Amino acid sequence: MINNKQDNSNSFPLQGLGVNRKKLFFASRIALIATAMTFAIRADLLGNTFGSIFKLNNEEIGWCIGTAFWGFTLAMIFGGFLVDLLGMKTILVFAFIGHLTGIILTIFSFGFWTLFCSTLLVGIANGFVEAACNPLVATLFPDNKTKMLNGFHVWFPGGIVIGGLAAYALGLLNFGWQVKMAVILVPVFTYGFLFLKLKLPKTERVSSGISMKDMIKACLSPLFLFMVFCMFLTSSTELGTNQWITVLLSNVGVPAILLLVFINGIMAVGRSFAGPVVHKLNPAGMLLFSSITAGIGLVLLSYSSGWTTIAATAVFAIGVTYFWPTMLGYVAEYLPRTGALGLSIMGGSGMLSVSLILPFMGKLYDRNLAAAIPKTHSISDMLNSLEGTKEFVISQAKVLAGAETLRFVAVLPAFLVVAFIFLLFYSKNTKQKVH
Known about the structure:
- This protein is an all-alpha fold.
- The protein has a single domain, classed as MFS general substrate transporter like domains (Growth Hormone, Chain: A, Up-down Bundle).
- Helix content is 78%, strand content 0%.
- α4 (88-107) packs antiparallel against α5 (112-140).
- It is globular.
């Protein structure tokens, strides 16, 4: 059961050991903001910037940007082991170095491979942030894991809002894409400075005396493996769509980067009030609700245009709000013996799935776009069309291609509905959390 008295010493066994819970939680959120800003600004630069400057097609962009998720996955999986062996502070130092070098290398990129390598470094840094901060939050708030992990992950969509608005404003002021990337260095230096001064505790698994063997055994249990499978689908639905949304909805009549900001603004607000929702639905119920709503939102988006897209976007945003932190919260509460490794495997699996779906979505969009352009019409026919210009025809083709791609992604939450109905019944029949 969740204890709302967060400052009660009984719920904070590290009190008196020089561990400042409030400052550590604040620094963790700044680190997550830096992570999220890389997602937002990268999404803003897809297609129009990276495509035109580096002469890449959408599939190549998908592979290049997808490497951030490969790096994230590797850092989280290995970080799950290293965070217990080296300590959370060391892992966060690795994150800071990765962010700093990756962002600077991105700014000076000149082609596919330099962009690929720099994005990989940023992805590794993002993974180390999650590998350290997820178990840190679980350790700091042992009686409020799902609620506080949602509270921590408020600042992923919150950081995307910050990054998205910054990218939009800098674009209006005609600053180059390099300046947009450099803005991320502000939260990077901030969290690096904060963590340098603070004492970090040992992970909950280490402090409770659970052996590495028991942790690995717990990570091989059927329930945990089932959750890993579901993480593949929830992450692809949420993060895959968010990374491509500025391209998929680039011609619906609303600035796509603002739609990304709108989605993540709703997510940030929703996660801020996760406590009452957890009490009302429980984690499994939250995940089922999210799957149904996200699926409906994707279908609505595929049929929307103009300002009606705002309503469809809101439905999708509500659906994906609780996916990531509640998946982690469920594992932390019901499978605590999986420890930092379990949380890292979950996060790493989520990012691995996104790294696979990004190039696939790019290729699917390219194929849908090619199919949507009328092959029986020459350029001169387009120029003399009733609607006016070739640009109009291409614009309409992009709308159709984006809609078809979104309808494909909507299949993923449909599978999740079935999976989470099973999880809901399982959780209700399990009288107590697994220890």
